[in-house]
């Protein structure tokens, strides 16, 4: 693969990873307007975010075997086209119930992008390069929350919340064209790969029997739950309690995302001196130590806007180290059934994220303390799973 072709391939894979975060983050600033337009509350609107996570989690389990059976690009085309159709449907939603259902269906199409991108990293590049490539994908993944809420804030203010979903349709259409023109096929279709339910379950059983997968998939997913907790809580806290405008909230979101971008790129430098296993362990320890600081501040009501923003920045930025390394480690054992492994990895990450967002949506969180407790519980449990899982599976 030439340098130019390699660059275009990684770029398209990065854009595919941006489909889900743009779908999540771009409409966050529109929550208050959506609530007003659909005669509901912001917390009910947050359930449309939860339904999207549920759809992503469930859809990925289906796409994994399909990608292994039919190759990577054909299911990817179908998923992206399906996404565009349902995104247009979201723009015409007339009730919160309709929007919640359509967001679930929209996610079924969106998850094709994330599963295919993860699997194709394993298909197209040596395992030794995977952590660095996942760091680049994390760059795009982290840049998305910088751009999406800011764009969404202005789009909502100028054209109304429905225009957000029209804009998403246009964006995904451009990515679809890039996939068609520049993305290699990756692993070819395997006609011997059965889609029989028993065969599919056996494929997933093979994945979960790998200690590396179980340890790093679950610990990273629980850590990733910190980000979902923040995403679901932040509109109510910052636009409700701190009275930020839609545009101001977008800039705040961009600032937090900048921490993840910085971490993911520093990770590339650290990989020259440390292994992925070492980086993940040390980052988890740091995050938990800072979590204690964050919880102490919330308990004693040190809730000045800039102090809260700085603490959230320091607590969430380590996820930029965790995700590329943990994803590479979880996918390391797989070459033949990378699609199923990528799907299960995504299912675990999004499944736990959907649980967090549903819980927060029902609580209608508008103060720092409940969110902070959720963040600290996620980071603490992630460290326990990492250390306990390594010991159980005898992983160094």
From TrEMBL:
Alphabetized UniProt keyword annotations: Cell membrane, Membrane, Transmembrane, Transmembrane helix, Transport
Source domain of life: Bacteria
Pfam families attached to this UniProt entry: MFS_1 (PF07690)
UniProt xrefs under PROSITE patterns: MFS
Membrane topology: Multi-pass membrane protein
CDD domains: MFS_MdfA_MDR_like
Main location (coarse class): membrane
Keyword Transmembrane on entry: yes
Cell division keyword on record: no
Residue span, Major facilitator superfamily (MFS) profile domain: 9-396
Protein name as it appears in the record: Multidrug effflux MFS transporter
Organism annotation: Paradesertivirga mongoliensis
High-level lineage: Bacteria, Pseudomonadati, Bacteroidota, Sphingobacteriia, Sphingobacteriales
């Amino acid at each position: 693969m030439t340098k130019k072709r390699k660059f275009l391939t990684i770029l398209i894979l990065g854009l595919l990873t941006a489909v889900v975060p743009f779908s999540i983050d771009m409409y966050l600033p529109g929550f208050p307007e959506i609530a007003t337009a659909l005669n509901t509350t912001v917390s009910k609107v947050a359930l449309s975010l939860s339904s999207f996570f549920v759809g992503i989690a469930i859809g990925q389990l289906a796409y994994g075997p399909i990608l292994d059976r039919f190759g990577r690009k054909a299911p990817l085309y179908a998923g992206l086209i399906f996404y565009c159709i349902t995104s247009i449907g979201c723009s015409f939603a007339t009730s919160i119930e309709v929007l919640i259902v359509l967001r679930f269906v929209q996610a079924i199409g969106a998850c094709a992008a994330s599963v295919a991108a993860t699997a194709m990293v394993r298909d197209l590049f040596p395992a030794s390069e995977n952590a660095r490539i996942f760091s680049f994908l994390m760059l795009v993944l982290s840049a998305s929350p910088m751009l999406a809420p800011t764009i969404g804030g202005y789009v909502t203010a100028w054209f109304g919340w429905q225009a957000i979903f029209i804009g998403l349709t246009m964006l995904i259409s451009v990515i679809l064209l890039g996939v068609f023109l520049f993305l290699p096929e990756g692993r070819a279709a395997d006609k011997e790969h059965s889609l029989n339910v028993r065969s599919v379950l056996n494929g997933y059983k093979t994945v979960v029997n790998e200690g590396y997968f179980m340890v790093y998939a679950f610990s990273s997913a629980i850590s990733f739950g910190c980000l979902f907790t923040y995403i679901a809580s932040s509109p109510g806290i910052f636009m409700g309690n701190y009275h930020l405008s839609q545009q101001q909230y977008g800039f705040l979101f961009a600032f937090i995302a900048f921490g993840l971008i910085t971490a993911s790129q520093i990770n590339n430098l650290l990989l020259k001196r440390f292994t992925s296993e070492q980086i993940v362990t040390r980052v988890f320890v740091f995050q938990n130590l800072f979590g204690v600081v964050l919880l102490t501040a919330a308990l004693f009501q040190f809730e000045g806007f800039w102090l809260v923003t700085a603490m959230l920045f320091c607590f969430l930025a380590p996820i930029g180290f965790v995700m590329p390394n943990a994803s590479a480690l979880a996918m390391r054992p797989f070459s033949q059934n990378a699609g199923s492994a990528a799907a299960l990895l995504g299912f675990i990450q999004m499944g736990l994220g959907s649980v967090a967002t549903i819980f927060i949506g029902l609580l209608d969180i508008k103060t720092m303390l409940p969110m902070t407790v959720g963040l600290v519980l996620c980071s603490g449990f992630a460290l326990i799973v990492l250390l306990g899982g390594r010991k159980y599976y005898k992983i160094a």
